[in-house]
User: Fold PaaX family transcriptional regulator from Nonomuraea composti.
Amino acid sequence: MFSFLGVHVLGRDVAVYSGSIIDVFARLGVTEEAVRSTLTRMAKRGLLARHRSGRKTYFALTPHATSVLEDGRHRMWETGAVNRDWDGAWTMVGFSLPDDRRATRHDLRSQLVWAGFGPLQSGMWIAPGVKDVRAIVAGLGLRDHVTVLTARAAAPTETADLVRKAFDTEQIAARYHAFLDRWDTPDPQPTLPDDLARQLLLHTDWLQLVRQDPHLPAEHLPPDWPAIRAEQVTRTLADAYDRPARDLAAKLLDELPLGP
Assistant:
């Protein structure tokens, strides 16, 4: 759903009829029930706003959703697959939360992963570069429970040891190889009905990859790091799918203008 909203709704002052969203996701084999449930959950979480026109319900992005999608777009298309500009600095986040805040601890860890952090040891997470985590801490109400520092490795600690301890590079590489197995072929996803379906699946797969990629320093990665090829494949296919997918979406989507 985030892929769909990011490609076809972000940046446009429109709301989209739920029935036409269901038609789009049917092309990917997603049931009407699943789509309606997802839209309802997103509305309850303040990511979507409902609008009525006659008997139809339309959904539009809220400012919160727009912020989330803009951040995802930046990570997907502007950050790059490999960190070649690292200056040796690390951001460290230490936290300790009581058991009755287990859900908040889970949310914190999830957002730290998205921000490129990995667990160095219990209650201590690190990320390469200087990261601004104020929004994460403030959003979860954890100012009194979190300590944030910037640091550099000092003897006897080696940067390579930090990478090895906090990040599973073999697992990260395996995810990229699995992505390439699916998409780096002469005819990717031939069972899908059209380029709109392929576009949404491609964007979703790529978003899931970058969500889990801490953007580690290039000098501590193998020279044949598969993220480089995966990014090339993604950009090539995204360009190829863009026009036919947008043309089809324009025919399928029932939109309600929200601007003046």
Q: What stands out?
A: The mean pLDDT is 93. The CA atoms of residues 195 and 244 lie 6 Å apart. The beta strands are 14-17, 48-53, 56-61, 90-95, 118-121, 124-128, 146-151, 255-257. Residues 2-66+252-257 form a domain with the Arc Repressor Mutant, subunit A fold (CATH 1.10.10.10).
